Request: fold
Amino acid sequence: MIKNIQKKLLLHHPLLWNTKIIPFGLLALLINLIFLALGYYNGSIDFSVSEYTYNSGTDTALIVFVSIVLSLLVGIVWMVLYSRNNAFKSFYPKSAVSLYVEWLLILVFCIFNVGYSISYLYGKELRAKTYFTEKEFARRTEIISLSSMFVEGDIIENPQQEITKNGEVTSIPIGHFSYKGKEYPVKSLINKRITSFEYTTPMMDSLNQERIKGWLTENRKDSVRWLFQEFFKIVEDHKLKASITPESWLKMVYTYPDFSSYPTIGRVPKLLNYSNTYFRGVKNNPGDYSMYALPIDSTSIVTTDDGAIGASNDTIPIPNEYDYYKYYVPYNALLNSYGQIAEIQSTPIVNSEFVLYYGYLPLMLSLCIFSFRVTSGRNWLIGLVSLGITGIIVGILSAVISFLGFETTFTVLYCLVFAVLLIYFIVVCYRKTSKGISGITLNPLLWLLPAFLPIIYTTIIQISNRRYYNYRYDQNLQIYTESSTILWMEDHVMEFMLANIVLVFIIMFYFAHQIRKWKAVAEA
Reply:
């Protein structure tokens, strides 16, 4: 069956047979699906974990390493089989469109073959996004954020008063603060800072802060009761445990009108000597404002003896005491899990910018393979060495000239090298007398093509910055304003990079026609 398929491809679709794109394209697609499934499986979130572990990226690093190894292995095997038959070098009748399509097929394979790690990362993010709809997730994060006002946390302000004692100026806490014309104790819940997620905007955070304060100052007890009930619905949904109920929580913390007499409600069951208070996807982590941290109420702590651990000789008993919160809710567990989802929702790794910039890798690889295909291994290697030496020389010249204040030397020399290579290739194709060294120069010409327009773009911005900055001095302070053109260019980098890829496709169509004509030129 496989032989029949190969025979039909050879007779009716020689380009597909020659490039081996069907078997290896399907293989690369299958590997991508495996990595996608693996990422989806590893992207599950444990909602019971209350601390973020810093080694959580180890698995991702290993997967990326494995994906690189697989890409190299599949790519090498494909190149060996692909290089066995070269119709272009054998002067097999080949149209310019066919040559262009061959490059497109190479590009398609490269896209699949270098995308294994992207499939894995996207699978992890896809798993996190499937837990809740966007509307439901926004509702839950709002409830968790509002509830942070009533658990252990930081206060917003701690007013100080400076006094002079024995000739020294010291600061002492005043013990109260003012809110909407009324005085409240510093410990008041109205002075508590809510914890917010990266998923929300600063405007939403400010509105939520004022919203919960309004409930307290306006004595809207039913609203706070509703909040606790909704919070515990989330707790029960994830099968987490708490030592209190919504009603007991409300009874302990709702002490109208000053809200200053309440026990400490822990975020975790056990009080540890250390605390990992960093959570991904959370803007103001607990402890970020340690100078405003409220002391833990001693009556809210229970010390237990979990037995005794013997010393090295098992004769001296050592007490094994632990401190537990008398009242706690699984707040840190929710903060940790929902923070991870919030980070993926707000700043996903696999976004349009990442995919666009990552797309330049298979584009460059396809041009390297295509140049090897239309020239030779010897010319390809000489072109690589020549380009490396040229790059070193250009780098040294740029470093030397930059001391004179010309920061655009490298980009200008890059454009000059590309222009010389392009003009030389066009002249060879036009004269049709001898290829000369065009078999060598064609390789770096194709390699430099994707970066040529971005280099020009960067050069224009750099030159414009030097030319259009308007300087004025005010009390030794240098102030400048940029031109609207520069600002527009800097704000549309993504659009330009996308347009550059489109232009590369168009230019490669022209190159395919010229390379076909160039092949007919005599070697000497």
Observations:
- The chain has 18 helices and nine strands.
- The first strand starts at residue 160 and ends at 165.
- The chain has a mean pLDDT of 80.
